[in-house]
Amino acid sequence: MSHQLVVLTEKKKELEDKIVGLRRLECSNGRVHKVCIARYGDGSIWVFCPYFGNLGIGLGCKIRQARCRYFKAT
Predict the structure, then answer these.
(1) What strand order describes the sheet that includes 32-40?
(2) What is the DSSP secondary structure assignment for residue 21, as one 8-state letter?
(3) Which distant-in-sequence residues (6+ apart) come within 8 Å of 20 by Cβ?
């Protein structure tokens, strides 16, 4: 178990080193969803959402009636 933990920590550090830009995402009514958009050196863009797969008041927005997603865009 501890061996796997070391590998994950090293991989996380490696990914953090490749981030070239970060920005927060807001909904149309101005509420922040705590979604983070990270742009990496290879040109890929990842959107990280802490509410991945959840639907409800936890999203912080009554207008947005959809599930949050975690996806990669090019």
Answers:
(1) 19-26, 32-40, 45-48, 71-73
(2) E
(3) 39, 40, 41
pLDDT tens per residue across span 20-74: 666 666 655 556 666 667 777 777 777 666 555 544 444 444 445 555 544 443 3
Quote the CA–CA distance of 67 and 33 in Å, as a whole number: 12
Nearest-angstrom CA–CA distance, 49 and 41 = 21
How far is 35 from 12, CA to CA, in rounded Å? 18
Span 29-38, pLDDT tens digits:
556 666 667 7
pTM over 0.90: no
Q: Which two tokens stand for residue 62?
A: 């009554």
